[in-house]
Amino acid sequence: GAVVSQHPSWVICKSGTSVKIECRSLDFQATTMFWYRQFPKQSLMLMATSNEGSKATYEQGVEKDKFLINHASLTLSTLTVTSAHPEDSSFYICSAPRTGGNSPLHFGNGTRLTVT
Amino acid sequence: SQQGEEDPQALSIQEGENATMNCSYKTSINNLQWYRQNSGRGLVHLILIRSNEREKHSGRLRVTLDTSKKSSSLLITASRAADTASYFCATAHLSGTYKYIFGTGTRLKVLA
User: Fold this and answer.
1) C-alpha–C-alpha distance, residues A15 and A74, integer Å
2) Among candidates A110, A30, A15, which has minimal Cα distance to A76?
3) pLDDT of amino acid B78
4) Interface residue A35 vs chain B (CB under 8 A)
């Protein structure tokens, strides 16, 4: 079946540094990828929709200069948390619909970011 | 917020019992999907029900959809300890492109 690979699975960084998270679709092309953020024991909050070859669409309240998204190819989207602060500590998950449109999503295994 | 609500927030049952989770959403949808998340992992798709469908089955899973009430339910029959996880409903909304909004989730614990 379709696989989405997310890397790294966890990262610890110091306040003020930037962290890049990669999301790859391994056996299908993903023109659209979604980035979610999840706090402990809570639901997934959609941060942005990543579109191959064009600018990402950010949800209300999400700072686009803080969370940089790049979708340079049909199999790779990256999320860069710039100048990270402790409040950015969270679980970040990417996903992509295999066949586009409103088909089921395939998820990466998430990235646990801890900012000290 | 477009986020849907799920209830109960947490559910603890004995192995062999059935588990029922409910999901309510706010806006019109194209389809509704259920996902499962093991602790600290990504989500796995379980089942999709289209807006013109009322019930769907997949193995031990049964999903219903009532678009007039904007609600759905997920029934897991003959539960097993391995079913312990969080379960989320997600609705697909067309807003330029499709985007998926997740419900608040139900944490299910199945006791052996």
Assistant:
1) 32
2) A30
3) 98
4) no
Give the pairing of strands B85-95 and B31-37. antiparallel
Cα atoms found within 13 Å of the Cα of residue A111, Cβ hemisphere only: 28
Q: Which residue reads 């897991």 in tokens?
A: B76
Q: Which residue of A has its CA nearest to B104?
A: A43
Query: Which tokens sit at A12?
Result: 């610890």
SS3 B65: strand
> pLDDT category, A101, cuts 50, 70, 90?
low
DSSP letters for A50-67: EETTS--EEPTT--TTTE
pLDDT digits (tens, 9 = 90+) for A4-61: 999 999 999 999 999 999 999 998 899 899 999 998 888 999 999 998 888 999 999 9
Q: Is A60 part of the contact surface with chain B (CB cutoff 8 Å)? A: no
| Spatial distance between the Cα atoms of A18 and A67, rounded to a whole number of angstroms | 10
